[in-house]
Amino acid sequence: MKPKSTYHNQLELIQRFAKGDSDAFFIIYKQLHLPIFRFVQKWIGSTEDAEELTADIFFKLWNNRDRFETLDYIRAFLHVAAKNSCINFLKQLKVKNVRQKELDDLLYKDAEPYFILEEVQEELLKLIYGEVEQMPPKMKEIFMLSYVEGLKPSEIAVRLNLNTQTIQNQKANAIRFLKSALADKLLFSATLFWLELALHEFF
Q: Taking a C-beta distance cutoff of 8 angstroms, is the pair 89, 49 a contact?
């Protein structure tokens, strides 16, 4: 299927996607498929299984297409869905190896925020990404690479041609920015808990 040429802006793309426009979905899929596939493949190892899980994740995105307001929100939704899919897949296989140990550690740390987040993630992510949109461009870029794509500071530093300390400083600044912006808003305590767990995970 070949998509229409282009949409005038991201808002139009999201609006058309929400209405069930398959061309808009194709554009989103083409842009976001590879990072999600690589994330899943990194966790479960099998290329064939990763392809199947990734397809299921994007099917879930399509079924929830009327819930998203920005492309960043879609990225966050896909990341959470991918992480939960990997956890469920490896739990079912009962893999007994080093990767399972890493997954057990991840599940122990993240079980509460990620499985509760599955129920409240829409409102929570709207709060977070509404404020992320207000960040300075470089801070926003580093935040998205870290918390959405899951890159480590050293990996972000290489991609952006910056030193690792600068990346760590910008991540810390992003957390302070969100703490301040969300301090008086509903669900702040849950939001802060999730962000601080993610901060420990990726530092």
A: yes
**Residue with structure tokens 């990341």?**
79
Instruction: Supply the pTM of this predicted model.
Output: 0.51
Domains of the chain: residue spans and CATH: 7-95 (1.10.1740.10), 123-203 (1.10.10.10)
Listing DSSP states for 109-136 in one string gives HHHHHHHHHHHHHHHHHHHHHHHHTTS-
> Residue 153 in contact with residue 191, Cβ under 8 Å?
no
Can you tell me which residue has the tokens 């530092």?
203
Q: Which residue from 89, 90, 80, 92 is spatially nearest to 128, judged by alpha carbons?
A: 80
Q: Is the dihedral of CA 171, 175, 181, 187 positive or negative?
A: positive
Looking at 45-185, list the stretches that DSSP marks H as alpha helix, in order from N- to C-terminal side: 47-63, 71-93, 98-132, 137-147, 153-160, 164-182
For the segment 101-144, what is each residue's pLDDT rounded down to a tens digit? 665 665 555 444 444 445 445 566 667 777 788 888 888 888 88
Q: Both tokens of residue 113?
A: 């925020």
**200 contact partners, CB below 8 Å, separation of at least 6:** 109
The pLDDT assigned to 6 comes to 57
